[in-house]
Amino acid sequence: MTQHVLDMPIDADKVRELRVGDTVTLRRTLFGIRDATLIHMFDRGRETRFDLQGHAVIHTAPNVRRVEKSEAAPAGYEPFCIGTTTSQRMERFTRPLMEREGVRLIIGKGGMGPDTLKAFQELGGAYLAIVGGAAALETTWIEQIEDVDMDDLHPESLWRFKIKDFGPLLVAMDAHGGSHYANIRDDVASRRDAVLASLGASE
Amino acid sequence: MKLDMDEVERLSADLYVRALKILPPDVKAGFKELVDAETGETARAALGVMVENVQVAERTNNILCQDTGIPIYNVTIGRGVDFDGADLKQAIRRGCERSTRENSLRSSVVHPITRKNDQTSCGVRVPIIHVDFDERDETVAIEMIPKGSGSENGSFLQMLLPSQGIAAAKRFVIDRVIELGGRVCPPTIVGVGLGGTSDLCMHLAKIAATRPLKTVCPDPEGARIEAELSRAVNELGVGPQGLGGRSTSFAVHVEIAATHITQNPVAVNIQCHSARRATATITPGGIAFS
Fold first, then answer.
1. In chain B, whose CA is at the least distance from the CA of A154?
2. ipTM score of the complex?
3. Would you indicate the residue range of the signal peptide (chain B) (predicted)?
4. What number of C-beta contacts closer than 8 Å exist between A and B?
5. Which of A20, A34, A180, B63 pairs as cysteine with B20 (C-beta 3.0–4.6 A)?
6. Fold for domain A3-198?
7. Nearest 5°: phi and psi at B101?
8. CB burial class (10 A; 0-12, 13-18, 19+) of residue B151?
9. Does A48 reach chain B within 8 Å, measured CB to CB?
10. What pTM was computed for the model?
11. Chain centroid to CA B19
């Protein structure tokens, strides 16, 4: 198990160095994205002015404060509480995010499915697990809201965060077909029958 | 006692942000129990981050989780209280809107068809307001629950057959916990409704999921099943965040209602580890928060 520090953006070779069980800390830039953003981008053909090539996206919709634009708040927003939402809902968007926008890393909670794993293998990507619900802590890793696009979808806008040592995050799905979630699923499946028997609820 | 609606509005606003910031003491104690019993390295690390987050939220006066949830207000009105029901509902709604605006809370509420967000945490029939009555003299309790969506999406109802028995209901609960994995932000409180009609059964599951830890189902048969299921879910290996380990749930809670001779309904509603709620109790002597 290796601890990686990644200065974003990264290339495909770098992402292939990540293996399930490794930990990662990100630096510089991170993009926030979620359901409505993805629906508008890929079901309704909306384009973003941001260049996501080689970048990481986090499944989030933040709590922010509107403030006067300044050097410290160039987008007119201050971060208040930024955390992570459940990734599974956005499964079908992984491939287009990678193919059209060049995204390399997805940060989320709860893991993603086989289509995502296949896209990671073919295109060079990885999923980094963050602890969901730990938003107060996560917010301390965010320095600034640098910019925002598609803000008519607020709070489900596309956010560009300036980050400082964002992590450690667990590599839970890698570019080599490895999925921590698939391993756990197999383990849980192997325990099911005994648990049901202990409840007098066998099939 | 006459219920002052300005006070209800103020409390409804205050309770929303209190619930978002302060993790109830029973949940904090629940974390300690899980940490003490957990042996998996990844699981212990994940639990450690959750406990650290509670401390960071207190230190930085921040809300615990970014998900401000669907606002739910449970109002329980005792005897000898003079109030206007329509005014009460309006005051709660104003308080919810005000809290969202004044505290820069993310409005997580949209129209179900247009998906339009009014940025007020309110919408058609939201906040959800339940009013009930009890025997306490001159007492009004307002409980606020910001129900997070990751866990709310882990909701299920099955109208089982009487011939399938309680065994099928237990199997249903176990299989849903397996299916949900890390999506519902474990460790969770698994709320189970048994009996009633379809709508009452789902409501029972919500009552169960949002009940304080260490409280017990008032029905002895229900209490026996929740103890059995509480043990069983932590033998599945789902673990915190679905990353593996013992700590899948703080507890399974069961609530029951009588049902029809043809029916055997079971419902599941999940509460995430950020099991937030706050209550204000109004009496002639003043207001107490818990």
1. B117
2. 0.93
3. none
4. 177
5. B63
6. fumarase (3.20.130)
7. -70, -50
8. buried
9. no
10. 0.95
11. 11
